[in-house]
Design a protein that fits this description.
This protein is of the alpha/beta class. It has one domain: 2,3-Dihydroxybiphenyl 1,2-Dioxygenase, domain 1 (Roll). It contains four helices and ten strands. It has helices at about 15-25, 95-105, 130, 140-155; strands spanning about 5-10, 30, 35-40, 45-60, 60-70, 85-95, 115, 120-125, 135-140, 165. Strands 1, 2, 3, 4, 5, 6, 7, 8, 9 and 10 form a ten-stranded mixed beta sheet that branches. A hairpin with a 6-residue loop joins strand 7 (about 115) and strand 8 (about 120-125). The radius of gyration is 15 Å and the shape is globular.
Length: about 170
């Protein structure tokens, strides 16, 4: 079963996008370090990916903003051309990522992105033909659960201070 928890946008200017969400009362944002120049799988082949990623909690919904710093082909550029901001994916947690991948591929579905950044396995399923966005599947583990709790708890009674924070290492 999938537990949908997140909506994500690809943005052209991360600082400006964060400022907009902060003005709407969403925050604080947590910045994920170490996403510049990492290697991920794109359609099964290792490729470099140069992004910056932040998360914040808006009630029960987590907001993710992703800025890609180059124009290389990627799961982000598949949907959102450089210079534009647009919704990209819905995020869901799964307890059995391998079974989800097998079902998706068996149905002829594309998997344009796979990674295991920081010990958390993440894939994007190309569900644009059926729901108009990609679907991100995150495999549940203690590290991911802790990160999600950190972002969620910080939003409770947030007073506007320290609006952009680094994820603790």
């Amino acid at each position: 079963m999938r537990d949908y928890f997140q909506t994500a946008w690809v943005v052209d200017d991360l600082e400006s996008a964060v400022a907009g969400w902060l003005a709407a009362g969403v925050g604080p944002f947590y910045r994920l370090p170490g996403t510049r120049g990492v290697e991920v799988l794109r359609h099964g082949a290792a490729v470099p990916l140069d992004t910056s990623v932040v998360w914040a909690q808006a009630g029960a919904l987590q907001v993710e903003l992703v800025q890609q710093h180059d124009d290389r082909p990627s799961a982000y550029r598949d949907s959102v051309p450089a210079g534009r901001d647009a919704p990209h994916h819905l995020g869901a947690i799964t307890d059995d990522l391998d079974a989800e991948l097998e079902r998706h591929r068996a149905a002829g579905g594309d998997v344009p992105y796979e990674s295991a950044l920081g010990g958390v396995r993440v894939v994007y399923l190309d569900t644009r033909p059926t729901i108009g966005l990609m679907t991100e599947l995150v495999e549940r583990n203690a590290l991911f659960d802790g990160l999600r709790a950190l972002v969620s708890q910080a939003a409770v009674d947030w007073d506007g201070s320290d609006p952009v924070r680094d994820v603790p290492s």
